[in-house]
Design brief:
Order of helices and strands: HHEEEEHHHH
Largest sheet: 2 strands, antiparallel
Strand content: 5-15%
Bound molecules: iron/sulfur cluster
Number of domains: 2
Oligomer: single chain
Structural class: alpha+beta
Helix content: 25-40%
Number of strands: 4
């Protein structure tokens, strides 16, 4: 039984954007979009606490989320998106994992926290 299987619901792409970007990711996504890094940063990012984050659109979804096509930069999406829900904060704390289950239907409620952690290590 899998501890996590994405249901493609888009819930993790909604809300106050927590998707920060490394310099390498900025270059990769800008290249994918065929624009300069400066253009990408100006158009699609915002700075918070001296870190660069993907902007959130008027619909409160990530600027790259499309209701039909889902993630528009899927092949080059940031590590933060690839890693979800195996964030260190979730893998390291059962209570945080319980909370994450409420927001992500892909996290199997029938699998124990220990098994979730084991799968994270694979
Ligand atoms: S919230 Fe969970 S199930 Fe929904 S798209 Fe995100 S990872 Fe997949
Ligand atoms: S980059 Fe893609 S996967 Fe990540 S939050 Fe935005 S739409 Fe979702």
């Amino acid at each position: 039984m899998k501890a996590f299987e994405c249901k493609m619901c888009g819930a993790c792409c909604y809300g106050e954007g927590g998707i920060f970007l490394t310099g390498e990711e900025q270059v990769r996504i800008a290249g994918f979009l065929g624009i300069s890094v400066e253009h990408f940063v100006h158009e699609y990012c915002e700075t918070r606490n001296r870190r660069l984050y993907l902007k959130v659109g008027l619909d409160k979804f990530c600027i790259f989320y499309d209701q039909e096509k889902r993630c528009l930069i899927h092949s080059v999406k940031p590590q933060r998106c690839i890693l979800w829900p195996y964030y260190p904060a979730i893998v390291g704390d059962e209570e945080t994992w319980e909370q994450a289950k409420n927001g992500c239907p892909g996290i199997n409620p029938d699998v124990s926290f220990d098994d979730f952690v084991k799968e994270a290590g694979k």
